[in-house]
């Protein structure tokens, strides 16, 4: 006898958060029964039941654009849509990680007291800076701190050499967090530097994303551990059953951060992974990294330790395991190193809010003269897109710098689908020609510069753990503008009239790819 379908009275139960997993578990029985009985109407009825149930379930607590994307897929391909939704449809974060995040927030408050003396002496300028600083603190728990020196570095080889030199100069501790740790010459150079440091008695910890760093994990993890380096995977890949039962986060929730902290006093943050610049033949990477000294390095350290604590539940000191990873030995007394005011902006699915998206949208709305956004991937949500349009209509000069070629053709087509509406509003779109511009940074007026790992797309805003440094300083903004001016010179600007004349088949492909914006 074939299994009976759920009666109408059970529909409220089907609308619970576990409905995709329940349906997925029943899929083999339904398929087997249909094949053995030869009742094609069973499949038709099941498909329509999927459509109707998901029509009610999917829009719950979801943005309209994301709901439309999923419902479109489910209505055309019900069984495949149900399977994909069960795996990727909800940003599920396990309870164990949420509890650890609560302890992390408590730990941040514990380390704040000794750092209060680095609060800005003068209030930040009213407008973009003051609003952004207060919002970022409420979203991510980190506050603006003065007394920092921020050096922007855009030479790939020089950044790698400087990082390795600082690791070689470490006396006490090296913490490295990256999304990609490859199996190539650059990764070998970092591996050797970490091994040298560990041999000197330096405490070395390496935290890598389980998906992005899988090649480097296979190549170097055992060697590093034998050499005394702690190696930990962030968001390890769990079994399908663990994901469906709610015991593990979704497969595509990734730790995309790139942070290096040496001796608790030197920090690096930006877009730089541990990989050769020429990892894609004919498409070399170009990055932007901030080398930071001063009290804000304690915030970079706190982000690293929080991520490590999420994966291990350990603080690094056995006697203090319940403080969210924050123990005194990880934070040497901070010293002023410059005149720049800065704060960390962490974001990720564990926060319950889209920290980076909200901060950027707020700053764009407050901009008075100029906004420049550099990103390799631009697939905005509706609020971000509207903020750019409104800025243009207010008379703000808005510039968007993208790569002419990127490493993901589907994503490139999706982002190109937004060009028309951006050009109509007056956004200047620059397509960088010399390399794959993987850098991710923003300037707002003369007041704010932001550099980190955050792409301007829905994935970075909602799914990835990201980190950015926000700097409130005219000199840093001026230095970033010099870099942006070089981008402009080496780019082709998209012409509105020429773009409107692109072939219909290209326009159609771009719009089809845009329909999947919430899945990219």
Q: Would you give an account of this structure?
A:
This protein is 45% helix and 18% strand. With 520 residues, it is of the alpha/beta class. It has three domains: 8-88, no CATH class; 95-342, Endonuclease, Chain A (2-Layer Sandwich); 355-519, 2-Layer Sandwich (Endonuclease, Chain A). The strands form three sheets. A 15-stranded mixed beta sheet has the order 4-3-2-5-6-8-1-9-18-16-15-10-12-13-19, with helices on both faces. A two-stranded parallel ribbon has the order 7-14. Helix 8 packs parallel to helix 9 (185-199) and helix 15 crosses helix 20. The longest helix has 19 residues, at 19-37. The protein is globular and about 70 Å long.
Based on the structure given, which CATH architecture of the largest domain is correct? 2-Layer Sandwich
What is the molecular shape? globular
Q: What is the level 1 CATH name of the largest domain?
A: Alpha Beta
Biggest sheet architecture: 15 strands, mixed
Strands of the widest sheet, in order across it, are 4-3-2-5-6-8-1-9-18-16-15-10-12-13-19
Strand coverage percent: 15-25%
Output the number of helix runs. 20
Low-confidence stretches: 1-18, 318-323
Number of E-state strands: 19
Oligomeric form of this entry? Answer: single chain
Average pLDDT works out at 86
Alpha carbon gap, first and last residue: 41 Å
- What structural class is derived from the secondary structure elements? alpha/beta
Supply Rg.
24 Å
Domain count: the total is 3
Helix content: 40-55%
CATH superfamily caption of the largest domain: Endonuclease Chain A
């Amino acid at each position: 006898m074939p299994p009976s379908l759920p009666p109408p009275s059970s529909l409220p139960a089907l609308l619970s958060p576990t409905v995709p997993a329940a349906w997925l578990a029943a899929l083999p029985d339904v398929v087997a029964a249909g094949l053995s009985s030869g009742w094609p109407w069973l499949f038709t009825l099941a498909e329509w039941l999927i459509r109707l149930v998901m029509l009610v379930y999917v829009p719950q607590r979801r943005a309209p654009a994301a709901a439309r994307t999923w419902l479109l897929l489910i209505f055309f391909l019900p069984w495949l849509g149900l399977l994909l939704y069960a795996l990727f449809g909800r940003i599920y974060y396990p309870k164990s990680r949420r509890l650890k995040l609560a302890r992390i927030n408590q730990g941040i408050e514990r380390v704040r007291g000794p750092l209060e003396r680095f609060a800005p002496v003068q209030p930040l300028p009213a407008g973009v800076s003051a609003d952004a600083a207060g919002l970022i603190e409420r979203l991510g728990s980190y506050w603006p701190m003065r007394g920092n020196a921020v050096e922007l570095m855009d030479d790939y080889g020089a950044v790698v050499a400087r990082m390795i030199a600082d690791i070689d100069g470490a006396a006490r501790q090296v913490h490295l967090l990256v999304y990609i740790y490859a199996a190539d010459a650059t990764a070998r150079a970092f591996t050797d530097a970490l091994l040298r440091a560990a041999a000197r008695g330096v405490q070395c910890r390496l935290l890598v994303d389980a998906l992005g760093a899988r090649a480097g994990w296979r190549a170097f993890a055992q060697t590093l551990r034998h050499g005394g380096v702690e190696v930990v995977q962030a968001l390890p890949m769990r079994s399908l059953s663990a994901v469906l039962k709610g015991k593990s986060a979704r497969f595509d929730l990734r730790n995309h951060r790139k942070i290096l902290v040496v001796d608790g006093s030197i920090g690096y943050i930006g877009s730089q992974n541990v990989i050769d610049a020429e990892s894609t033949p004919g498409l070399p990477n170009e990055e932007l990294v901030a080398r930071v000294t001063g009290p804000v390095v304690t915030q970079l350290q706190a982000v690293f330790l929080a991520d490590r604590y999420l994966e291990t539940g350990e603080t690094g000191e056995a006697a203090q395991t319940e403080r969210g990873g924050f123990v005194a030995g990880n934070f040497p007394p901070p010293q002023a190193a410059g005149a720049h005011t800065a704060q960390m902006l962490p974001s990720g699915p564990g926060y319950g809010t889209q920290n980076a998206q909200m901060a950027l949208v707020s700053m764009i709305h407050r901009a008075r003269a100029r906004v420049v956004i550099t990103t390799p991937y631009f697939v905005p949500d509706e609020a971000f897109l509207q903020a750019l349009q409104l800025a243009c209509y207010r008379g703000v000069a808005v510039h968007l710098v993208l790569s002419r070629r990127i490493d993901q053709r589907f994503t490139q087509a999706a982002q190109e689908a937004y060009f028309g509406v951006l050009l109509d509003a007056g956004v200047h779109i620059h397509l960088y020609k010399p390399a794959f511009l993987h850098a991710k940074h923003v300037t707002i007026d003369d007041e704010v510069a932001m550099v980190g790992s955050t792409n301007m797309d829905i994935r970075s805003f909602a799914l990835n753990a990201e980190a950015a440094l926000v700097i409130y300083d005219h000199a840093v903004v001026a230095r970033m503008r010099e870099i942006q001016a070089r981008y402009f010179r080496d780019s082709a600007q998209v012409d509105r009239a020429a773009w409107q004349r692109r072939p219909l088949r290209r326009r159609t492909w771009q719009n089809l790819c845009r329909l999947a914006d919430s899945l990219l």
